[in-house]
């Protein structure tokens, strides 16, 4: 039996962590070394078969800068899922990711499926955030965790698929 559903999701995280690059990789299979920074937010959609269902991903890619912070609730309030992105070569971006998780826990939809993405996993030689630290944090906070690379495509489709699989279906 074929079913169709769509859901909104939001990408949050520090500017430069790779949110737009993850979406571009997922939606278009592309990567840009000089990805332009996002102004406000950008919208993307992608339709894929996940198990026996056709799933339309409606994705809000947010800017990440502090000056756009007040806009973020517009994007996450209606979202069924969120990917919180940090850069494994930046401890500041990991700190910022944890702040986003706290904000979603307080003000987001309580049934939201949340994923923590440790992006730029290809930059192993510049790593500052241990995978085990991030994994432990994710487990304590009810998120699932993957390290991704928009550059090499590692775990990019996987993280989006995993979200779709975890969504409660009506
Ligand atoms: P955003 O501000 O979170 O949307 O980040 P961007 O997607 O604009 O990426 C910021 C910079 O990091 C760009 O120069 C990207 O090319 C680069 N970048 C993004 N993802 C990766 C990755 O997985 N590996 C590497 N090495 N660079 C990346
Ligand atoms: Mg961006």
UniProtKB/TrEMBL annotation:
Molecular-function annotations in GO: GTP binding; GTPase activity
Annotated compartments: Endosome membrane; Prevacuolar compartment membrane
Superkingdom classification of source: Eukaryota
One GO location term (cellular component): endosome membrane
Keyword hit for NADP: no
Keywords: GTP-binding, Lipoprotein, Membrane, Nucleotide-binding, Prenylation, Protein transport, Transport
Membrane topology value: Lipid-anchor
Keyword Membrane: yes
Any one biological process term the GO annotation gives: vacuolar transport
Family: Belongs to the small GTPase superfamily. Rab family.
The protein, known as: Ras-related protein RHN1 isoform X1
Taxonomic lineage: Eukaryota, Viridiplantae, Streptophyta, Embryophyta, Tracheophyta
Shown residues within the full chain: 37 to 206 of 232
């Amino acid at each position: 039996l074929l079913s169709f559903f769509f859901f909104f999701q939001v990408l949050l995280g520090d500017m430069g962590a790779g949110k737009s690059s993850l979406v571009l990789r997922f939606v278009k299979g592309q990567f840009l070394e000089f990805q332009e920074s996002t102004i406000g937010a950008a919208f993307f959609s992608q339709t894929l078969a996940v198990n026996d269902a056709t799933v339309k991903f409606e994705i809000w890619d947010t800017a990440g800068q502090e000056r756009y912070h007040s806009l973020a609730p517009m994007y996450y309030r209606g979202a069924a899922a969120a990917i919180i992105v940090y850069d494994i070569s930046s401890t500041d971006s990991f700190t910022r990711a944890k702040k986003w998780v706290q904000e979603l826990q307080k003000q987001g939809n309580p049934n939201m499926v949340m994923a923590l993405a440790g992006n730029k996993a290809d930059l192993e030689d510049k790593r500052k955030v241990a995978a085990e630290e991030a994994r432990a944090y994710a487990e304590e906070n009810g998120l699932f965790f993957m390290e991704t690379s928009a550059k090499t495509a590692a775990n990019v489709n996987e993280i989006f698929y995993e979200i779709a699989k975890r969504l409660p279906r009506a």
